[in-house]
Amino acid sequence: MRKQEILLSFERLLKIENYSEQTIKNYLSSIKLFLEYVEKHKMEKVTDKEIGDYLYFASSEKKYSYSSMKQVIASIGYLYTKVLHKEYPQALKIELRKPERLPVVLSAEEVSKIIKVTENIKHKTILILIYSAGLRLGELINLRIMDIDSKAMRIHIRQGKGKKDRYIMLSENALVLLRDYYKEYKPEEFLVEGQPGKPYSTQSVQTVFKQALKKAGIRKKATVHSLRHSFATHLLDEGTDIRYIQELLGHKRIETTQIYTHISSYSINKIKSPADKLKI
Known about the structure:
280 residues; mainly alpha; DNA polymerase, domain 1; hpI Integrase, Chain A; three-stranded antiparallel β-sheet; 4% strand; globular
């Protein structure tokens, strides 16, 4: 099969198997880079050695992160087993060591400052929605008007990560901003639109956040996703059961949610230092 045929078959099968649009996009991007590497090095046959060489190239020269390397391995494995109908390459049977990094979390005061310095009503609404509901960026831009239930005070997240639906509480402050925003912008289908009837771009949201972060004078290496991390951490700080937080975030595994126990002041402050028992 030629490169274009492989890519078409690859994309077609992912769609048939009902993978999310974002996963399809990520897998395609990963496989394109792999096939370009094969073409560039004029490989007539791709064995475990060549796949291993590519993994080394991606890790050492391209400096791929842990998550990017996982994506490379998963996409190549899918290509071989599902598209080419071959055995799973031995070179892919490796265990990646996950780096123990804590997410960047903003304090409640910092989040408040970021929202306050954002004057544009659309931009302000975007930021408070992400923080108040712990939304992923993709979930925010895919929200439709009908997903906001102001009577039940909840937001319907349709087909989030892992193709799962869930409900999240609708903040009263977010609803106030939403109503003002709706009166001014009158979106047609998507809650936050770029062009009429078209969703806002992820790049635009990231730019809005970066500008707000700079204007607020906050030097933390925060991203839009830090608002989601902050949402979870602040709930934990307030004593919310971690199982509820898991449901709100849409995490499949409780272990994913438990990372917030490492940064929550609530969990840290519950533990008393042995030094407090000393008579000094």
